[in-house]
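Regression test case RT-17, inverse folding.

Input:
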């Protein structure tokens, strides 16, 4: 494990296609599909995770430094954020029509 400033985790873009292919080749796996998070160390992709199936591809450097654990944690947070209703929606869900101050007196 290492401190947060030594790595960056971000969503992959089209520009990452070559790096993701290289990571898959090094890992001996097929390329990741769907939404992918990339873990960079010193500005170089060292590991990636697919949010579709939780598969990780990584080079030896990314594996040795435990980047896969960080990616799994971030992927879980990413998925949770995607399914969690907004703060506004959670407040609205808690307020029932007709349950205003007048209803409290009845």
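Golden output:
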């Amino acid at each position: 494990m290492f401190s947060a400033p030594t790595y960056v985790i971000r969503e992959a873009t089209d520009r990452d296609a070559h790096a993701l292919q290289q990571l898959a080749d090094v890992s001996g796996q097929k390329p990741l599909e769907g939404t992918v998070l990339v873990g960079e160390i010193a500005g170089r992709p060292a590991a990636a995770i697919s949010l579709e199936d939780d598969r990780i591809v990584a080079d030896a450097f990314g594996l040795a430094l435990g980047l896969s654990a960080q990616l799994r944690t971030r992927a879980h947070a990413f998925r949770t954020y995607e399914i969690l209703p907004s703060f506004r929606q959670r407040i609205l869900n808690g307020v029932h029509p007709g349950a205003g101050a007048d209803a409290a007196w009845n």
